[in-house]
């Protein structure tokens, strides 16, 4: 698959936008999945996924063709997600959004936000509950847990994507697992 | 971690879950889990946690996503179309290179220029030790050319950035390097390090002028 991808990228470098369409087809679900799990709602996830592909296209001549393309692409996507998370200041933002409009904001999508705690547990499906606990992780643990257990990437690949030493990735995965364990053990 | 045991056993659990536990550690862990219910419980909870995370269904990008992105891609980059034009017109290309060489007498001007740090003039660009800085929150409209120095972009540039004999420094954020989140540049970013690339840059600007007329 990497060979096919590299052949397409050479065409993209020559200016063929349709070749980039094939690249999008190959990776859109994986990138969307990262963004959705990181950001927690489908509108933002779609926007972020789109931005990741546009950035990859615009900067395609900075991609080193000897490396794995998905690593580079996932790096762009995770960086964009982290930027968005850091810019968001979640609590303040959520309150402002909910108070401001008639409930039909992007953020009314987040399952937990407006509901009281006991209602939350009742109405939330198991899937949503797990997703919510992933979202509750600090962003640096959330990223590695998603890449490891949802994208099923190797620790080495994760360390390349995040540009972090392998030891740091391991520590973050350990802490992420422990944090999730405490939240999910009673299920 | 909620149990009284030596922390090494928790370490071993994580080594095991990462798939890089040594034979000795694994043996030690197994033996310990047979006698220690607290650790056994913690280990089972960890395994369950992983299984739960992995059980979340894989979601897909919304329908029509690819078409949408393709529609929003910027038009073909200028240099791509210029490079292609060169490919199609080898004779004219040679003529243009010749003319460019003649009119700008580049090689000698390359040698002269080689030392001095210069930046496209703009009141908002800060200069520090041969580095041009576009500060955060500042938007520069127009192209920037830096020679014999670097540029750090924390703000936004609405135009192309060209660095001759230097590099574009990516903004560091919390000690981690951020490839995609350096300040925003709406045009092309180019780094030119050698005489030949510089030549190419000169030819391209000449070409652009020709094509614009
Ligand atoms: Zn124990």
Automatic annotation (TrEMBL), chain A:
Q: Does the keyword Membrane apply?
A: no
Query: What GO molecular function annotations does the UniProt record carry, in alphabetical order?
Result: DNA binding; sigma factor activity
Q: Which InterPro entries did the record assign?
A: RNA_pol_sigma-70-like (IPR039425), RNA_pol_sigma-70_dom (IPR014284), RNA_pol_sigma-W_bacilli (IPR014294), RNA_pol_sigma70_r2 (IPR007627), RNA_pol_sigma70_r4_t2 (IPR013249), RNA_pol_sigma_r2 (IPR013325), RNA_pol_sigma_r3/r4-like (IPR013324), WH-like_DNA-bd_sf (IPR036388)
- Gene Ontology biological process: DNA-templated transcription initiation
Going by the UniProt record, its keywords in alphabetical order are: Sigma factor, Transcription, Transcription regulation
Show where the RNA polymerase sigma-70 region domain sits: 24-89
Q: Which residues form the RNA polymerase sigma factor 70 region 4 type domain?
A: 130-180
**Known Pfam families for this protein?**
Sigma70_r2, Sigma70_r4_2
UniProt superkingdom: Bacteria
Q: Which family does it belong to?
A: Belongs to the sigma-70 factor family. ECF subfamily.
Can you name this protein? RNA polymerase sigma factor SigW
Q: What is this protein's gene name?
A: sigW
């Amino acid at each position: 698959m990497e060979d096919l991808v590299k052949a397409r990228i050479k065409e993209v470098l020559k200016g063929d936008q349709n070749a980039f369409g094939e690249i999008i087809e190959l990776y859109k679900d994986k990138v969307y999945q990262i963004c959705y799990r990181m950001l927690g709602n489908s509108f933002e996830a779609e926007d972020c996924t789109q931005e990741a592909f546009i950035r990859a296209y615009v900067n395609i001549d900075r991609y080193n063709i000897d490396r794995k393309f998905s690593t580079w692409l996932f790096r762009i996507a995770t960086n964009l997600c982290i930027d968005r998370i850091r810019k968001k200041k979640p609590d303040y933002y959520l309150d402002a959004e909910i108070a401001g409009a008639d409930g039909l904001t992007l953020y009314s999508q987040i399952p937990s936000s407006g509901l009281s705690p006991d209602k939350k547990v009742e109405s939330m499906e198991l899937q949503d509950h797990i997703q919510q606990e992933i979202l509750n992780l600090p962003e640096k643990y959330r990223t590695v847990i998603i890449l490891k257990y949802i994208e099923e990437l190797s620790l080495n690949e994760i360390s390349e994507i995040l540009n972090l030493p392998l030891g740091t990735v391991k520590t973050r995965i350990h802490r992420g697992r422990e944090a999730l364990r405490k939240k999910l053990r009673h299920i | 971690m909620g149990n009284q045991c030596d922390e090494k056993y928790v370490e071993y659990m994580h080594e095991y879950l990462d798939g890089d536990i040594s034979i000795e550690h694994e043996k030690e862990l197994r033996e310990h889990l047979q006698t220690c219910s607290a650790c056994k419980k913690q280990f089972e909870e960890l395994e369950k946690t992983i299984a739960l995370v992995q059980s979340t269904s894989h979601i897909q990008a919304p329908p029509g996503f690819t078409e949408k992105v393709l529609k929003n891609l910027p038009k073909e980059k200028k240099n791509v179309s210029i490079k292609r034009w060169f490919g199609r017109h080898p004779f004219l290309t040679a003529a243009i290179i010749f003319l460019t060489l003649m009119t700008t007498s580049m090689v000698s001007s390359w040698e002269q220029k080689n030392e001095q740090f210069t930046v496209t003039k703009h009141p908002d660009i800060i200069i520090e030790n041969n580095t041009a800085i576009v500060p955060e929150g500042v938007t520069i409209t127009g192209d920037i050319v830096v020679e014999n120095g670097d540029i750090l972009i924390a703000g936004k540039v609405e135009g192309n950035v060209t660095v001759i004999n230097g590099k574009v420094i990516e903004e560091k954020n919390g000690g981690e390097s951020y490839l995609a989140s350096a300040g925003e540049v709406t045009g092309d970013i180019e780094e030119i390090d050698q005489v030949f690339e510089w030549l190419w840059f000169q030819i391209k600007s000449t070409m652009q002028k020709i094509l614009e007329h």
